[in-house]
Write a sequence for this structure.
């Protein structure tokens, strides 16, 4: 690849305790929890709105917040607060009321007890409200593009804002981009997709339809096969999650652009199948299509601990656990030729250790959300939104402990982190 050397002065936009990159489920919770714990926080999001895959990707429902069999609630904290705030807009159905095998789970039974259907637009409002009320500053329409490192630390980050390149200085950084964009630029070892071949799980362009005859769809649910998977939302729309686009590199513009082009035709195809072959959807209309391609997997960081498939299937209870989750290893086939998903039974619940958010080779960075340090197959469950929120909340508090006690992120007292998480309503046992 040929290259040029570019050099210019870049305006320093501001100086913060923590800069959080990426405003998806993990990033919003990281920013809110850091700000509520007294830090000066800047949250940076590339797209116009907060929510990540939940809003720009139109993904939903929030996957289960209960254990494997749906008996005990195991995600709380900011996740609960988001649900409570959505309730005020009648834009959510409480997970306690949700059973598996209904129109809200596309009739899927396994691991689908107590999912949380929500309406994406109201989620944008709620997340924006939470960030602003917390005192964190917010920059949307602003993309992280590079960083300046010194002595194993990130000193400055370079952002592409509508006004041009700007620079931000912070003591600590939380990478919630889902593609480990910051970690990769900071020299953290990363890998994309599965370890053996580098192939990620496929992407999907989500869309919503209105005008569904619920009774028709309900009758269809009794049959074993449905032509298209659709999940009802509180407003009565259905989120459609159907075709796959394979081998998309979400950290590469050309790959994303080409995949998105293909996915638009898949939406038309799925719409056709819905109207012609899916009982209850004969008169449905597309109401909106996601603005961003749904990306299930991109980069993973190499962290101080890499969660394994065995940890998820045995439920290894780490001393430094900061979150618990109970959704199955939902790993979609990585090519058209492969059939079926990777299936290994999980423990009743499994744990996420703080060390899996701590990247190698960088001393002032945490990585929360789906890019955490985890075997590719094992991330299949904990990539879901409730788990991403729980990780973000923990990362924000970890930063507060580091700054307030003048220690590094590696040096924080993890039992103090766990105590603060419990006090904030999070569940870690
Ligand atoms: C098709 C599909 C269906 C799914 N279904 C479900 C489901 O039903 N239930 C469930 O719970 N989970 C589901 N998931 C998984 C879930 O949506 C994601 O794994 C989850 O959103 C991860 O949260 P995150 O915060 O790690 O990342 P994301 O949600 O991906 O958020 C990352 C954010 O970072 C921003 N960003 C990226 N790069 C930059 C940059 N350089 N600078 C600034 N900002 C940047 C992005 O714009 C985005 O807002 C699904 C995912 C897909 C793709």
């Amino acid at each position: 690849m040929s290259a040029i050397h570019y050099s210019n002065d870049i305006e320093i936009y501001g100086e913060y305790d923590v800069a959080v990159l990426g405003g998806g489920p993990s990033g919003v919770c990281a920013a809110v929890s850091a700000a509520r714990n007294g830090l000066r926080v800047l949250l940076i999001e590339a797209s116009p709105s907060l929510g990540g895959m939940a809003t720009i990707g139109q993904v939903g429902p929030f996957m289960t917040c209960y254990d494997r069999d749906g008996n005990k609630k195991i995600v709380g904290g900011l996740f609960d607060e988001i649900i409570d705030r959505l309730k005020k807009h009648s834009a959510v159905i409480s997970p306690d009321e949700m059973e598996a095998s209904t129109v809200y789970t596309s009739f899927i039974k396994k691991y689908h007890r107590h999912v949380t259907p929500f309406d994406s637009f109201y989620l944008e409002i709620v997340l924006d409200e939470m960030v602003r009320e917390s005192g964190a500053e917010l920059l949307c329409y602003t993309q992280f593009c590079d960083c300046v490192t010194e002595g194993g630390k990130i000193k400055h980050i370079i952002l592409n804002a509508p006004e041009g390149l700007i620079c931000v200085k912070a003591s600590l950084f939380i990478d919630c981009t889902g593609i480990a964009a910051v970690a990769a630029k900071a020299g953290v070892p990363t890998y994309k997709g599965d370890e053996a071949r580098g192939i990620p799980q496929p992407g999907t362009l989500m869309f919503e339809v209105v005008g569904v005859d619920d009774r028709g769809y309900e009758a269809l649910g009794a049959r074993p096969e449905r032509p298209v998977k659709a999940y009802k939302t509180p407003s009565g729309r259905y989120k459609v999650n159907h075709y796959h686009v394979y081998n998309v590199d979400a950290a590469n513009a050309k790959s994303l652009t080409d995949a998105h082009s293909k996915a638009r035709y898949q939406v038309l195809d799925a719409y056709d199948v819905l109207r012609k072959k899916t009982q209850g959807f004969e008169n449905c209309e597309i109401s909106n299509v996601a603005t961003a391609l749904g990306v299930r997997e991109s980069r993973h960081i190499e962290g101080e601990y890499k969660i394994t498939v065995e940890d998820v299937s045995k439920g290894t209870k780490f001393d430094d656990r900061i979150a618990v989750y109970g959704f199955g290893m939902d790993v979609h086939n990585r090519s058209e030729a492969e059939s079926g998903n990777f299936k290994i039974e999980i423990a009743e619940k499994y744990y996420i250790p703080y060390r899996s958010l701590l990247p190698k080779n960088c001393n002032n960075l945490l990585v929360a959300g789906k890019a955490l340090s985890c075997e590719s197959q094992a991330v299949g469950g904990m990539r879901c939104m409730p788990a991403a929120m729980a990780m973000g909340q923990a990362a924000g508090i970890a930063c507060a402990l580091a700054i307030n006690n003048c220690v590094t992120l590696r040096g924080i007292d993890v039992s103090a982190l766990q105590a603060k998480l419990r006090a904030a309503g999070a569940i870690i046992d």
